[in-house]
Amino acid sequence: MWPKMTLRDRTLIVDLGASRRVLSSAPFRGGLSYSRYLVNRTVPKDFCPPDLGGVVRADLEGLGLPPGVCVAHLTAVDVAAHAYAAAEEGGVRVQVWLTAGLGNLAAPGLSPLALSRPGTINVLAVLHADLAEAAMVEAVQIVSEVKARCLRGRTTREGYPATGTSTDTVSVALLEGPKQDYCGAVTPAGRALGRAVDGALSAALLDAIPATAEGL
Description:
The protein is an alpha+beta fold. It has one domain: L-amino peptidase D-ALA esterase/amidase (4-Layer Sandwich), CATH 3.60.70.12. It is 23% helix and 37% strand. The chain is built from three helices and ten strands; from the N terminus they run βββαβββββαββα. The protein has helices at 52-62, 133-150, 188-207, and strands at residues 4-7, 11-24, 31-42, 70-75, 83-89, 92-100, 105-106, 121-131, 164-165, 169-180. The strands form two sheets. Strands 1, 2, 3, 4, 5, 6, 8 and 10 form an eight-stranded mixed β-sheet that branches. A two-stranded antiparallel ribbon has the order 7-9. α2 packs parallel to α3. The longest helix is centred in the C-terminal third of the chain and has 20 residues, at 188-207. The chain is globular, with a radius of gyration of 16 Å. The relative contact order is 0.21.
């Protein structure tokens, strides 16, 4: 079974076909869940409602999506400009959809405290594999490591080496596939994920709005 991606009303929707295990840092239903839809939605640059969950829930309902089975990411980037890549290693196939905005480039532990704005790198990764929970955490780690590598040479407004943005999010969803106890860099799942994230992010960065742009 393959996920289906659609674009509708400033929203990228990945339909997993049924509720699947998802580990996510998204602001709406992040954490470990069983979810059917991975959503990446374009919002205004000044988006900061007092009830973010309520606003996102209403938006999802307006799209005909049941909020209780959606994991939703938010970005100021036009999701129609997303990048996609896929890779396969040892029978494990990985698909990645992502958007990249560079206005909030950050260096953890070095960048000063600041208000969060929706200029971000959002990664939606689907692994056709049965991962242990610890391996799902490894998958998030792989995404972070590849992201840092792809951003090599870019700096924050303060001049620090950037490894991501201050509001990056990632979702790792599992579809049917071979059982994998690990997802490290040299495992089939980890290598396929690394290749897919590298391919999608490298493509997205070619068109990404630079960090000097206001509000992204």
